[in-house]
Amino acid sequence: MKEIGGYFELELNEGAEYHNNSIRLNTGRNALEYILLANNYNKIYLPFFICDSLLEPLRRHDIEVDFYLIDDQFEPIFDFSTIEDASGFLYVNYFGLKDSFVHSLKQKCKNLIVDNSQSFFSKPEPNTDTFYSARKFFGVPDGAYLYTNKPLPFPLDMDQSYNRCLHLLMRKDIGPQPGYGSFLQNEHYLCNQQIKKMSRLTQAILCNINYEKIRKRRIENFNFIHENIASTNKLKLSTDAVYSPMVYPYWCTDKGLKDRLHKNKIFTATYWDDVKKRRTADSLEYKFTEEIVYLPIDQRLTKRNVALILKIIRNEYSR
Ligand SMILES: Cc1ncc(COP(=O)(O)O)c(C=O)c1O
Description:
By secondary structure, the protein is α/β, with parallel strands linked by helices. Helices cover about 35% and strands about 15% of the residues. It is built from eleven helices and ten strands. The protein has helices at about 30-40, 55-60, 100-110, 165-175, 175-190, 200-205, 210-230, 255-265, 275-280, 285-290, 305-315, and strands at about 25, 45, 65-70, 75, 85-90, 110-115, 130-135, 145, 245-250, 290-295. It has an eight-stranded mixed sheet, sandwiched between helices. α4 packs antiparallel against α5 (about 175-190). The protein is globular and about 60 Å long. The chain starts with about 20 loop residues before the first strand and ends in a 6-residue tail after the last helix. The structure holds pyridoxal-5'-phosphate. Pyridoxal-5'-phosphate binds near residues 29 and 118.
């Protein structure tokens, strides 16, 4: 029986999760591990343009990896007829901008694994192994969703996250800077974990989010930036059907932009330093890491914030 009386717990609304028909897990990389084990894959094709965390399950289970190239549309340069029966092919829905491509890829790519870690709101293709990582879009310590038809042949323990929320609480209470160390500690903790079920706490927080409001704000911010700077963006991305943007990738010739934004307390992520050890400086992947500025467009940014970013880009504002 449930305990009654005594002290109160954190009060959260009892809403619905966005991916409420999926398997709830601890992290994106563990969702990939689940897929690899459930399908008995002994090899995986990964893009060179990826972060190293996805290599963890491959090392753990001695799974062979072959890296593939992508073009300037973030699409694989690859002969899909060469995929073996026991190999998976992972494609990242880059920055939440590749929904239509994922749909077309499904028609021609065997054993496709869609990594929607950067595209939380995208719907999965039918009968396609697809995973999501919640903390790339929301204030949770961990959590992943997985769509697959193949169950794992062994039971999973449940994760516990209560002692890894300090950075979330600190940021809310006293601002981003003091909590940064705890954020990094949590990222470190998530390395080399077993596959676990999502913690009750993470699930409860994910039941408490206004998903549609967040998605709409992201799209508004993305479109506002795009309308203003698309003409100077070396990336010519199709943005007509953007549904789940993560950031706005801006490839420009302004080498000082990232520092200028930083000086004005606008922080941009790097995707991914790990790539630079896999590829040479003249490669597209290396340039994507080194030269593209990934502008924030998330739900915390108001239209005024975005307008400020545009001013900094145009060199019309400095603190
Ligand atoms: C594209 C991509 N996929 C998967 C992951 C792994 O997700 P998680 O950190 O939840 O394991 C990451 C980064 O961490 C990522 O950048």
